[in-house]
Amino acid sequence: MNYARIAALGLVFSLAGCINAGLPDFMKGSIGQTDDKIYARLGAPNRTVSTQGGGSVATWDERNLYGRVLCTITFVISSEHVITSGSTTCPSSSF
């Protein structure tokens, strides 16, 4: 097992509740919506990790012209394809 991956997922889930309060408006509006809406806006994620309950954690990278990651957007998606929480390191002006 990849313990670093499990620890990272645990951190995402434990922080999700307090992180949602500071999300940009478009991300706040995505909570409770189906994942197809976020895929339509952001395209395919750069990384997706499946969770034990059948859901997933999807992360998009915003990169500069040289391929360097500038910031990330992450959503936790339930097994019913509903976005339950999100976090970002991007400034709200990126949206």
Concise description?
With 95 residues, the protein is of the alpha+beta class. It has helices spanning 3-19, 25-28, 35-42; strands at 47-50, 56-63, 69-77, 83-88. Residues 6-21 have low confidence and may be disordered.
Q: What composes the largest sheet? A: 4 strands, antiparallel
CATH topology: Beta-lactamase Inhibitory Protein, Chain:B, domain 1
CATH class: Alpha Beta
Beta-strand portion reads 25-35%
Mean pLDDT: 80
Q: Which CATH architecture would you pick? A: 2-Layer Sandwich
**What are the segments in which pLDDT stays under 50 over at least 5 consecutive residues?**
6-21
Assembly annotation: single chain
Strand order of the largest sheet: 1-2-3-4
How many individual β-strands?
A: 4
Query: From N to C, what is the helix and strand string?
Result: HHHEEEE
What is the C-alpha radius of gyration, as a whole number of Å? 13 Å
- Tell me the count of domains: 1
**Number of separate helices:** 3
The helicity comes to 25-40%
The shape, in one word, is: globular
The structure class reads alpha+beta
**Gap between N and C termini, in Å?**
36 Å
